[in-house]
Amino acid sequence: MLRTLLLALCGAGLAAAVHAQEPIRFARTPDISPDGQQIAFSYLGDIWTVEAIGGVVRPVTMHEAHDLHPVFSPDGRWIAFSSSRHGSYDVFVVSARGGKPQRLTFDSAADLVCGWTPDGSQVLFASTRGTGFPPGMTLYSVPARGGAERVLPFPTAKDIAIAPKGDAVAYVAGPGLWYRKGYRGSSNDDIWLAAPDGTNHRRLTDFNGQDASPMWSPDGKRLYYVSEHFGTSNIVFRDLSNPG
Questions:
Q1: Which of helix, strand or coil describes residue 7?
Q2: Which terminus of the chain is less hemmed in, N or C, by CB atoms within 10 Å?
Q3: The pTM is what?
Q4: 69 and 185 housed in the same domain
Q5: Which residue from 210, 206, 159 is spatially nearest to 183, judged by alpha carbons?
């Protein structure tokens, strides 16, 4: 998810064109393809792609509902996204070239895409299906071809990123339900590490401001995330190959 925020920082400068080369303003929730060649993003309620070097954007979805949070599959052939086309947000998968999306979740709660498993077999998402009030987030996986959902073994997590080799997980956890810019206190989120089976939890950050949106480097040796440690939101990293 960090790559989404990283790209969002430069979204205002995106000069791709839609309809007679009009500049795009306020593109949202971008994601970059695994090969670095394409960017997917939400604009005017649909999912679009554009070459990373700029150019003419291409629609992936066209629907009167709201589509957002596109995330490329590890092989770059598919895009998972969330859509309100059936009322609440559900998880969908569509070819990166466009076509008819396949609906993967059918709950009345909001299901927001987080990412994929490294092998591309599962889509990860956060859902407000909790029974408490106000509802918190619960993380799930669902087969990319459709099937039964599974609750992930990280009950306090709000967002998740699986290491490229599948041998570790970084997740976001904290008691707060809403983010408030500049807030300092115990309700902010931190980054945690764990084994994929939900054991071996280790707190990576303990800053009393916000730490969120983890993303692994391709070799799994670094973890990038967004932190307010330096006053405003900045991209920082931890070298996990050197625990000291």
A1: helix
A2: C
A3: 0.85
A4: no
A5: 210
Same domain, 9 and 75: yes
Beta 17-18 vs 58-59: how paired, if at all? unpaired
Using the Cα atoms of residue 8, residue 12, residue 15 and residue 21 in order, give the sign of their dihedral.
positive
Same-domain status, 115 and 174:
no
Last residue of a domain, one of 86, 120, 152: 152
* Structure confidence at residue 135 (pLDDT): 65
Residues counted in the chain = 244
User: Which residue segment(s) compose the domain that 46 sits in?
Assistant: 1-152
DSSP state of 233: -
Which tokens is 98 given? 């466009």
Structure tokens at 213: 């949106």
In tens, the pLDDT along 195-244 reads 999 999 999 998 888 898 999 999 999 999 999 888 788 899 999 987 65
User: Alpha-carbon Rg of the chain, whole angstroms?
Assistant: 17
